[in-house]
């Protein structure tokens, strides 16, 4: 029920944006009809589930990849462009996080190495004094 309400709200916002751009209005019944159709297509019918399943089975995989999604979106240039853009942003973000983790682990190793060096210097000074 909450998901259906969220779809209805989002469709209402999109209709409002289109109405402002095109100087037109949508009736409440029209928004409700668009919401219902959208909900049924996305949640109840879930036509992509079968397509993803076929793609994975064909590729002998059990995981849907970004490339699978792009393949299904190829007929809509704007959707394909959007998915590609988001995929690249996600990949860049993931790479940044990996780099940060590497730097943190390198810094931690560097500290340990310098501490070990200090201990070695102290030890050699002690042995020289003896």
UniProtKB/TrEMBL annotation:
GO terms for biological process: DNA repair; replication fork processing; resolution of meiotic recombination intermediates. Belongs to the TAF9 family. CENP-S/MHF1 subfamily. PANTHER family: CENTROMERE PROTEIN S, CORTISTATIN. One of its GO terms (molecular function) is chromatin binding. InterPro entries: CENP-S/Mhf1, Histone-fold. This is Centromere protein S. Keywords: DNA damage, DNA repair, DNA-binding. GO terms for cellular component: FANCM-MHF complex. The lineage of its organism: Eukaryota, Metazoa, Chordata, Craniata, Vertebrata. Residues 100-111 have a biased composition (Basic residues). Residues 91-130 are annotated as: Disordered.
């Amino acid at each position: 029920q909450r998901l259906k309400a969220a779809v209805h709200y989002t469709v209402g916002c999109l209709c409002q944006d289109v109405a402002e751009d095109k100087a037109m209005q949508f009736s409440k019944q029209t928004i409700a009809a668009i919401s219902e159709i959208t909900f049924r297509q996305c949640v109840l019918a879930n036509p992509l589930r079968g397509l993803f399943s076929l793609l994975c089975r064909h590729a002998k995989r059990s995981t849907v990849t970004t490339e699978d999604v792009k393949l299904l979106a190829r007929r809509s240039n704007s959707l394909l462009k959007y998915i590609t853009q988001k995929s690249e942003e996600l990949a860049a973000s993931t790479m940044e996080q990996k780099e940060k983790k590497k730097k943190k682990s390198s810094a931690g190793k560097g500290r340990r190495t310098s501490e070990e060096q200090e201990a070695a210097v102290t030890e050699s000074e002690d042995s020289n004094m003896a």
